[in-house]
Specification:
single chain, about 350 residues, alpha/beta, Rossmann fold, 3-stranded antiparallel β-sheet, 8 helices, about 30% helix, about 20% strand
Length: about 350
């Protein structure tokens, strides 16, 4: 019997072991690169459609800022609670009104009855106006704003007192003593006084009453009572000031002594019962003596006349005094005139005359 020997089958190596190590490393690296590229491509494709936004969180609390914000909020709340009610806006205009009030009639009122008048508009006043008030005494109330040689007031009734004694003209060269007039009318240095009086008259409104008193040896009123400042009355007053308030136009009345009679002039002015009096003079009061010459009237007598005049008024009037310096200033004149103004709620002013002889 023949023995047959069996051959062992050939051994097979794993597939990976068929390659050398360098080849295997290269294959692994290629797979890693391929996987990395694929991952990057996927991420970039999907992230391109998404936009990430980052919002900053609130600021860290600051004690000083928090305190300031608290005060601001508290102030807003208080304003909303205590705010005043809305006031409708007023329509104002600076244009000239097309409606003009007719002049008021000249109505005579008994002195025993209270004189009242309500002032409506006040266009044309020198410094502005306001409403009306009682017309009997008490300057500085409601009325027309007035100005005479820089002294301002507000009043509804005014008297302008102008000294026309000889010295008012001789000291400035308008006249030669004793009775020769050198300059006339508007050529006189005294015209400055007339111009101021005329400007005051022109500034008055029809709701204002006014009068004029000139004096020297005697006191003479333009009208027996105050008249409303209508256009007609103002034109008549301007003509009176220009033509009659002049040298030698205030002679003594029957039974009166001459001189420069402040006492008679003040009594005449207060008898018109104004709220405001403007008195212009160049010196102290004098009175003629029977045998000739002049004697001074003591200041106390002048003060007494004004005091008695004030008693007849419902309310104390303002008496403003202008010291018209047409010569050398004298302390006794200043004292008397300043005292007269201060005793009667008025102002005192010095004015240097044109053509003054020092």
């Amino acid at each position: 019997m023949e023995t047959v020997s069996e051959e062992a089958p050939p051994q097979t190596l794993p597939r990976l072991r068929r390659y050398s190590p360098p080849v295997l490393i290269a294959v692994v690296v290629l797979h890693l690169l391929f996987g990395g590229v694929a991952a990057i491509w996927v991420v970039s494709k999907y992230s391109a459609h998404r936009k990430l936004t980052f919002n900053a969180g609130p600021k860290s609390p600051n004690p000083s800022e928090r305190a300031l914000e608290h005060r601001v909020q508290l102030q807003k709340k208080m304003e909303s609670v205590s705010a005043p009610p809305a006031v409708p806006k007023r329509v104002l205009t600076t244009g000239v009104a097309k409606v003009v009030l007719p002049p008021m009639p000249d109505i005579k009122v008994s002195d025993s009855a209270p004189k009242t008048m309500m002032a409506a508009g006040a266009a044309g006043a020198a410094f502005g106006t306001s409403g009306g008030s009682s017309l009997g005494g008490g300057g500085g109330g409601n009325g027309t704003a007035i100005n005479f040689f820089g002294i301002r007031d507000i009043s509804t009734s005014i008297v302008i007192m102008i000294d026309v004694s000889d010295s008012m003209f001789t000291r400035t060269g308008d006249a030669d003593y004793p009775s020769k007039l050198v300059r006339h009318g508007k050529e006189q240095n005294f015209q400055v006084v007339r111009d101021e009086a005329i400007k005051l008259v022109q500034s008055l409104t029809p709701q204002t009453r006014f009068g004029i008193v000139r004096w020297s040896g005697g006191a003479h009123a333009w009208k027996e009572e105050l008249v409303p400042a209508t256009e007609e009355n103002k034109q008549a007053a301007i003509a009176h000031i220009q033509n009659e308030v002049d040298y030698k136009t205030a002679k003594p009345k029957r039974g009166e002594r001459g001189g420069t009679r402040h006492d008679l002039a003040l009594a005449e002015a207060f008898s018109l019962k104004p709220e405001t009096i403007y008195m212009l003079t160049d010196g102290n009061a004098t009175e003629s003596e029977p045998g000739g010459g002049l004697k001074p009237i003591p200041p106390q007598e002048i003060y007494k006349v004004a005091e008695e005049g004030q008693k007849a008024l419902p309310k104390k009037a303002h008496l403003h005094v202008i010291y018209y310096l047409n010569g050398k200033e004298k302390s006794d004149e200043v004292d008397m005139l300043r005292g007269l103004a201060s005793r009667n709620s008025g102002k005192f002013q010095k004015v240097e005359a044109k053509g003054r002889k020092k």
